[in-house]
């Protein structure tokens, strides 16, 4: 069930807008300023009322100001009952039952009160007046002296200047100093009177349409039938309309006279004047009291409490309309997570208000308004469902429900509209592209920047596989669509006010206000537009990221490896070209990469990646320059090192005359060496110019090293002369030292000769070790003296002196050779034989023993002849030769003891047979066997070894027989198994 009065306010405002357009059209026609709107608004009796020209006309003979101060005008207006509110204050939302004005007063201005035309007024030089204007800061309206500048005929506005500011003022708020202030007051009063009547008629006209429902004001059937028979359908419809309007007007006037709270004055229609009888007779004839009772039963506005309740409900609904389900305006672009979080928080707040505060406040306002109405149509204490459904209260609650639903739907429509426009408008330019789109243009200029503020923030990163964004672009569409769907769906969870308003009635728990559904064409279209916009918008987004793949190699370049490769493969000129390339590429990055870029609704932050790439180019450049610097440092360091070596060798303090001659020979080669080093330095200086080309500041140490290397040749040449002078003095000193050394040498030769003579009389074999050590010392001393003598002879030659005679020293050395060899061979053999005796049998190698014995036997044999005339020394030699020959038979015994078949049992048998009481094994040393006279039991040892070999052969024979027997058994078992299988198959 629906009722015409359910949306009375919205309809009234719509009607007000339509009638406002009529007023504006009337004003722009520049006809008489008296209100000339449609006859449906004002009766002809009012429009026909003429004000005589003598009451309005002003004759201005001389241009003399009638007023000089604003206070005078304000006093006159006050005496005539005019205040500033009548000219300025307007109700922005017209009320059906209100005394507030909602039509601008200038619409009702009568230009007949103007004493002169606009052209005549503007012809007056320096035309002044008083205008009612609003102060920007205080927002208060004040009368202010102004100077008239011009007139806008299209807007019907006078252009005035106030304190350097220009205003557009309607004539009703402008008093010109040459006109009569009394007439100006009448002009305002006339406009106020006309506006009051117009506003009253608008309210009256709309209230009449609220009553015009159903068949309550139809003519009786007999009259209708007669009219239909006697006239055409068009005539009948016209008469029926006049008839309904006439009776509704009569009924409305009675209703308004008896209900002063409605603040609407009765309007007497034009047809009253042409009736042959008075209106009072009509009231009696048609029983208008019954008609009024009928109106009261039809219309909801039969009690001030109802109007107040609807007014408060409308206010609460307007609060909801002003809300928003989404948050779309941010001071700066947001990440998807922040956008989602902010909107979810906003939805939580809005739904908290809708599900709790809105229902509670609306219920409280309605309950508070209807609480004191009492029994009747609007008794909120009703307990019967049947009665409730026939009450006006039911219709009132239904109207409130529809109003709340309308507000809820307006909220959804407005919120989704703002949401879609805010999110989709920046994506408009991406809609025509296809899925295969690739970003071919500049990386700085975006063809998809619509000029609207982007919504989302993305940070561009460089990944190992490909560039990527801080948020995956494919996540936006599902997230935004989910937000859109969930937010619309949640608006269906707002309860009706019925259960909370009527405590005596029982309602179902699932009564909710109806909101916009997802299948609604508007919502579906917006959702589809959102889906399409973001499906398209991510295409250029991905294409833009793909363009940065060309920088992946640069981003992940290892600076150390890169520098090492350049260092090992390229020359200095090629390094220069590589540095120039890196600089050009860095400048190219600065020109071609943006700080940020807008693609559709996305604001992409490229600054970190751009900075990283530019920095990588700068780091590569710096690394190459550093590498080149290090290379030059090493080269320069090598050259400086060579220079220092020259200086060090040249400036060495000579230790001898040979050293002086060596330094002099080196100094003769210095000029050539310097020339070679200077050539090398020229190449290095050329490479230093590469660094200068790039304006690279050398470290202080490298700078000083470079200039040190350049100045070294001159310093070395200057120092050669001083070195020569120094050497002259050193030669004299060494000549004196040579004489002293020569005398000392002769003395040392004599001393060593005496010492050797005494030492050769030693023949004690027991002291072989001590004697061999002393012999080695003497031999070393003889060699040192011999070398020293040769050195002295070389110096003698350098000093141009006679050579020293070394023949006695040579004879001494030759005579001592045999003696030295005898004692050294003796000591060595004693040590070797000792090791054979003390080491385990298993570690003695008989082949090595045999070779060693042969060597020492030959050595001792060769020493017998030189000492033919010295029998004591020959006795010593023969002693050691006998020891060698005595040990030779032991080789065979050692080989028997090392036989691999000897087991512990065999060792026990040997020990028992030989009477040896200690445990024998291959780990025992040979000395043990010698102490127990093992050579006497060699035959026993051979027998034990022979028996061991026989036992081994017998054991191998037994094992072979057992293996043969096992093989035969396995073969027999195998054949038997085969025969069994063959029987089974049969």
From TrEMBL:
GO MF terms held by the record: dynein intermediate chain binding; dynein light intermediate chain binding
Coiled coil: 934-981
Keywords: Coiled coil
InterPro entries (UniProt xref): DHC (IPR026983), Dynein_heavy_linker (IPR013602)
Pfam families recorded: DHC_N2
Family matches, as PANTHER family: DYNEIN HEAVY CHAIN 6, AXONEMAL-LIKE, DYNEIN HEAVY CHAIN 6, AXONEMAL-LIKE-RELATED
Protein name: Dynein heavy chain linker domain-containing protein
Species, as recorded: Culex quinquefasciatus
Native organism taxonomy: Eukaryota, Metazoa, Ecdysozoa, Arthropoda, Hexapoda
């Amino acid at each position: 069930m629906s009722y015409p009065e359910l949306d009375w306010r919205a309809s009234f405002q719509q009607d007000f807008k339509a009638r406002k357009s009529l007023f504006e059209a009337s004003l722009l026609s520049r006809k008489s300023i008296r209100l000339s709107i449609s006859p449906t608004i004002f009766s002809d009796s009012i429009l026909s009322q003429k004000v005589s020209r003598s009451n309005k006309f002003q004759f201005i003979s001389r241009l003399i100001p009638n007023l000089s101060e604003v206070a005078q005008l304000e006093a006159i207006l006050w005496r005539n009952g005019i205040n500033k509110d009548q000219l300025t204050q307007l109700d922005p939302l017209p009320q059906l039952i209100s005394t507030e004005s909602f039509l601008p007063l200038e619409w009702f201005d009568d230009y007949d009160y103007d004493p002169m035309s606009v052209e005549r007024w503007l012809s007056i030089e320096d035309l002044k007046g008083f205008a009612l204007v609003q102060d920007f800061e205080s927002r208060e309206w004040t009368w202010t002296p102004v100077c008239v500048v011009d007139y806008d005929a299209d807007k019907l506005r006078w252009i005035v200047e106030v304190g350097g500011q220009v205003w557009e003022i309607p004539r009703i708020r402008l008093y010109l100093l040459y006109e009569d202030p009394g007439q100006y007051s009448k002009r305002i009063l006339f406009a106020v009177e006309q506006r009051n009547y117009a506003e009253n008629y608008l309210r009256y006209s709309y209230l009449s349409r609220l009553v015009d429902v159903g068949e309550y004001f139809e003519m009786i059937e007999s009259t209708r039938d007669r009219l239909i028979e006697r006239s055409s359908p068009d005539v009948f419809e016209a008469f029926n309309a006049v008839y309904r309007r006439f009776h509704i007007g009569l009924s409305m006037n009675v209703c308004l006279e008896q209900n002063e709270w409605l603040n609407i004055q009765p309007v007497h229609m034009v047809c009253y004047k042409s009736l042959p009888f008075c209106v009072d007779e009509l009231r009696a004839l048609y029983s208008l009291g019954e008609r009024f009772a009928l109106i009261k039963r039809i219309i909801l506005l039969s009690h001030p409490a109802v109007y107040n309740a609807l007014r408060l409900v409308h206010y609460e609904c307007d609060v909801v309309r002003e809300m928003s389900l989404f948050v779309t305006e941010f001071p700066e672009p947001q990440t998807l997570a922040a956008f989602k979080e902010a909107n979810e928080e906003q939805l939580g707040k809005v739904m908290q208000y809708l599900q709790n505060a809105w229902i509670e406040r609306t219920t409280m306002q309605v309950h508070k308004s209807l609480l004191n109405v009492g029994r009747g149509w609007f008794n909120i204490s009703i307990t019967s469902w049947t009665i409730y459904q026939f009450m006006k209260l039911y219709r009132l609650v239904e109207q409130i429900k529809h109003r709340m639903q309308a507000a809820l739907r307006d909220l959804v429509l407005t919120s989704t509209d703002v949401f879609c426009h805010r999110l989709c408008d920046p994506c408009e330019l991406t809609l025509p592209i296809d899925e295969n789109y690739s970003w071919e243009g500049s990386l700085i200029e975006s063809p998809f920047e619509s000029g609207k503020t982007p919504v989302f923030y993305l940070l561009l990163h460089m990944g190992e596989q490909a560039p990527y964004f801080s948020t995956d672009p494919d996540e936006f569409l599902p997230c935004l669509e989910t937000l859109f769907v969930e937010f619309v769906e949640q608006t269906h969870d707002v309860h009706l006010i019925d259960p909370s308003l009527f405590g005596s009635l029982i309602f179902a728990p699932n009564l909710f206000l109806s909101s916009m559904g997802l299948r609604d064409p508007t919502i579906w279209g917006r959702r589809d537009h959102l889906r399409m916009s973001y499906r398209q918008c991510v295409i250029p987004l991905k294409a833009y990221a793909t363009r940065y793949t060309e920088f992946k190699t640069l981003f992940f370049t290892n600076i150390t490896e890169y520098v090492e490769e350049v260092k090992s493969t390229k020359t200095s000129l090629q390094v220069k070209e590589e540095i120039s390339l890196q600089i050009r590429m860095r400048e190219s990055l600065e020109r071609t990469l943006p700080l940020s870029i807008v693609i559709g609704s996305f604001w992409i932050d490229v600054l970190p990646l751009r900075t990283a790439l530019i920095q990588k180019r700068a780091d590569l450049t710096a690394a190459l320059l550093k590498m080149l610097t290090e290379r030059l440092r090493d080269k320069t360091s090598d050259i400086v090192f060579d220079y220092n070596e020259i200086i060090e060798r040249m400036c060495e303090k000579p230790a001898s005359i040979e050293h002086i001659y060596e330094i002099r020979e080196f100094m003769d080669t210095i000029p050539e060496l310097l020339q070679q080093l200077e050539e090398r330095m020229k190449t290095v200086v050329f490479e230093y110019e590469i660094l200068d080309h790039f304006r690279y500041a050398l470290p202080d140490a490298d700078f000083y090293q470079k200039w040190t290397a350049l100045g070294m040749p001159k310093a070395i040449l200057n120092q050669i002369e001083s070195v020569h002078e120094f050497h002259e003095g050193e030669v004299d000193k060494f000549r004196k030292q040579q004489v002293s050394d020569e005398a000392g040498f002769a003395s040392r030769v004599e001393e060593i000769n005496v010492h050797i003579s005494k030492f050769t009389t030693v023949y004690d074999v027991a002291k072989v070790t001590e004697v061999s050590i002393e012999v080695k010392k003497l031999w070393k001393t003889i060699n040192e003296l011999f070398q020293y003598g040769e050195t002295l002879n070389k110096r003698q030659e350098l000093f141009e002196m006679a050579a020293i005679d070394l023949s006695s020293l040579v004879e001494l050395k030759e005579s001592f050779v045999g003696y030295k060899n005898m004692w050294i061979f003796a000591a060595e053999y004693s040590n070797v034989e000792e090791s054979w005796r003390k080491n385990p049998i298993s570690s003695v190698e008989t082949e090595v023993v045999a070779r060693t014995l042969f060597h020492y036997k030959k050595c001792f044999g060769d020493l017998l002849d030189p000492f033919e005339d010295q029998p004591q020394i020959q006795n010593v030699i023969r002693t050691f030769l006998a020891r060698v020959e005595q040990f030779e038979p032991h080789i065979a015994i050692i080989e028997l003891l090392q036989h691999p078949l000897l087991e512990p049992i065999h060792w026990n048998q040997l020990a028992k047979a030989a009477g040896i009481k200690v445990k024998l094994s291959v780990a025992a040393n040979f000395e043990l066997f010698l102490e127990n006279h093992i050579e006497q039991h060699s035959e026993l040892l051979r027998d034990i070894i022979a028996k061991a070999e026989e036992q081994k052969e017998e054991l191998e024979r037994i094992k072979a027989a057992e293996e043969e027997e096992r093989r035969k058994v396995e073969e027999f078992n195998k054949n038997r198994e085969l025969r069994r299988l063959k029987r089974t198959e049969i």
